[in-house]
Design brief:
This protein is an alpha+beta fold. Helices cover 37% and strands 19% of the residues. The radius of gyration is 16 Å and the shape is globular. The N and C termini lie far apart (48 Å).
Length: 201
């Protein structure tokens, strides 16, 4: 029999909402992945790079302007053809957004592609629909150089898209340091981290 965490990883890769081929629910897959790796939380004063990205609506935008609009930011890095950790992270972001209820409108949720050569705005829009992204959750692509510069600025560049790891970044407002969460956070983890971050503003 396969180890539970292996099954959970397979479920996470194959499932977006509903029941896994192996009989595990999405929530169970999330929890198994979470149990397999403890979260590591740190505070780091990252500097937003001066780059232009392309939003899922096709508009070219300054990343700094997008992140500095006054809202708290919750951010991760994904790519649409990923069959490993990205579906799990995106599913978690979707559940996190819904868990915030009315407060979701106050938060800018950001997902940046690490495979911009393949991830067109149209592909990002389709990807966002798969995970039921609500208003306020924005996906970005752009040039390869801009994507790499952004990954390097936030300490997530691994040289190859297949080597990336699960990282969530949060910031309560412009000018504040970022809270970095390494590992597979559950929606409840993100809600707790977010609440504690904004409470300290």
């Amino acid at each position: 029999m396969k180890h539970p965490t292996v099954v959970a990883a397979a479920c996470a890769a194959l499932l977006v909402g509903g029941t896994c081929l192996f009989g595990l629910t999405a929530r169970a897959a999330e929890q198994s992945a979470h149990d397999a790796q403890d979260l590591r939380v740190s505070t780091i004063p990252y500097r937003t790079p001066n780059v232009t990205l392309v939003r899922e609506d096709g508009k070219s935008v300054s990343l700094a302007s997008e992140l500095d609009d006054g809202r708290p930011v919750v951010m991760n890095f994904i790519f649409t053809s990923c069959e490993g950790i990205c579906p799990l992270m995106s599913q978690t972001f979707g559940s996190f957004q819904r868990s915030l209820g009315a407060d979701a409108a106050k938060v800018h949720i950001v997902s940046i592609s690490i495979d911009p050569e393949e991830d067109t705005p149209a592909r990002l829009r389709d990807y966002a629909k798969r995970f039921h992204a609500g208003a306020g959750w924005t996906h970005y692509t752009g040039s390869l150089a801009a994507s790499v510069a952004t990954q390097e600025a936030f300490g997530v560049y691994r040289g190859d898209k297949m080597s990336h790891t699960a990282v969530t970044l949060m910031r309560s407002r412009p000018g504040e340091p970022w809270r970095r969460i390494d590992g597979f956070a559950t929606p409840d983890d993100l809600v707790q981290q977010y609440r504690s971050l904004v409470a300290a503003r």
